[in-house]
Specification:
Blueprint lengths: L4 H13 L6 E5 L3 E6 L2 H22 L10 E6 L2 H8 L7 E5 L4 E6 L6 H20 L6 H11 L3 E3 L2 E4 L4 H9 L5 H5 L11 H16 L2 H15 L4 H9 L3 H13 L6 E4 L9 E3 L2 H15 L6 H14 L4 H14 L2 H14 L4 H13 L5 H10 L4 H12 L1
Parallel strand pairs: 2-3, 3-5
Antiparallel strand pairs: 1-2, 1-9, 4-5, 6-7, 7-8
Helix pairs in contact: 2-4, 4-5, 5-8, 6-8, 9-10, 12-13, 12-14, 13-14, 14-15, 14-16, 15-16, 16-17, 16-18, 17-18
Length: 402
Amino acid sequence: MKVTVKRLIGVLLLLVAQPAFAAWFRAETPAFIVYGQGSARQVGAAATQLAAFDQLLRQLTGTTGGAPRARVSIYLVDDARDFERLRGNSVGFDGFYTATPNTIAAFVDRSDTAHEARAQSVMFHEYAHHFMFAHQPASYPAWYIEGLASYWETARFSNGKARYGDYDSGRAQTMMLSNWMPVARLLGADWANLPGYETPMFYAQSWLVVHYLASDPQRAAALARYLETVAGGTPSGTAFAQVFGYPVERFDKVLIDYVMGRTLKPTELAFVPQQAAVPAAPLSAVADALLIPAAQLDIGVDPGKAPALLDRIRRIAARYPTDWSAQVVLATAELRLGDRAQARVLIDSLAAASPDSAPVLVLLGTAQLFDHQAASATLAHADALRPEDYRILFLRALSRRT
């Protein structure tokens, strides 16, 4: 076959236009699982940094004891198309955290490899959300949830020290270029109900409020009293005046002076990571192919995108007809998105082959709930195999209510 220079150039250009993404790797500790692409070294390094961050948060919050009962999965996504599939309507965000009855996970957009430091900050930000909800569950205002994660996300480790609470030029620039949101409104706002154009300012001012209050011991103590007062049902403005001793309207000038005066300083403390380097290993071919589709399935997918996801899972599972894990994902997809009768055939076959498999028993119990059959015995069996698994406990509660 004769290959012309013109044809060869065309093939090379096609290869350049279609980026190839590396296989997935997995690294884990008792507190989390990290999935990432690139190389085992890169994914292991990210997991090692996250382990140090977890240790720092425990030190800062006085958290003792072991890992939470439910681990969070962190996905470091290099393919922008995969990240678009995952984030759904969360347009404009380069990371998000979600907890559903099927999974607890965070996703980080790493498609822009020129901003590795930013990707690490996003990973820390999303993990901070999980840490707060897992170790310090309470009723928190929205600004504190996002502001505290932004305050912690700048953490870095070197030379036996940890540094956090750094000045964030991006947040500061947002405040300089956008309209200031009155703090009285910010403290009572729910970011999910804000107009899209106000979201960046909400994040920026939330970071500023937390930085001002948390970076000083006396103000931090007052912040704790304020959060407790608000959680008790006192309106945010009333609680602010009670705790801080002046009207919330005066707080606007305090914050503006704080950021304009460039007095925002990071905190630095002695820190020795206790976790050794976390190793990473490649996923199997089938786990690699199904990782993102299975994650989509667990976090939930828009009805309009469900047929495409179901078709994708069916095509992948067809390549691995004898693989147990592929058939479990396929049965789950059919049960939630597709043909429930076909799902039941698959599930019954899996249950006959693996009668003591907790994932299969969960599927069977869920199918029985859908079919209005008795699922109690099935789910009790699953619970005995995997005690305190929140997914099984949720289904058991649902079966009793049903």
